[in-house]
Write a structure and sequence with these properties.
It contains 2 helices and 9 strands, in the order ααβββββββββ. It is of the alpha+beta class. It is elongated and about 70 Å long.
Length: 119
């Protein structure tokens, strides 16, 4: 059988006859990641399942972080992907309001040095 004749075949990929071991493995030991979906006034985490035949988030599914309003993402990733270990690859960031610049400027000093330190 040539490559072009294989590509022109109509396979029923839902049939266990095509990939019996793969189908059996998926049925016996599925790998899913926890659903991270969440919404607040500050952010939304939306998860997308790669396999519409299951309810759970299987390998390759993604969760995306979106910050609302003045909030900005701090640390972490915007998108994480479900890995074969059943864990999310990467850590989603968090959304927070940027620090306000409310303090008046410091006066100039003749002797000494001023160091900024963030708490």
């Amino acid at each position: 059988m040539t490559e072009s004749s294989i590509l022109n075949q109509n396979f029923d990929f839902d049939s266990p006859k095509i990939f019996p071991t793969l189908i059996k493995e998926c049925d016996d030991d599925p790998i899913y990641c926890n659903d991270l979906s969440d919404t607040s006034d500050d952010y939304q985490i939306t998860c997308t399942d790669t396999n519409n035949k299951t309810v759970e988030l299987d390998v390759g599914s993604q969760c995306n972080l979106e910050c609302f309003g003045e909030n900005i993402q701090t640390g972490g990733e915007t998108t994480v992907i479900c890995s074969y270990s059943g864990d999310w690859k990467g850590d989603l960031g968090t959304c927070a309001k940027p620090p306000k610049d409310d303090c008046p400027p410091l006066p100039d000093i003749d002797n000494g040095v001023i160091y900024c330190r963030f708490l």
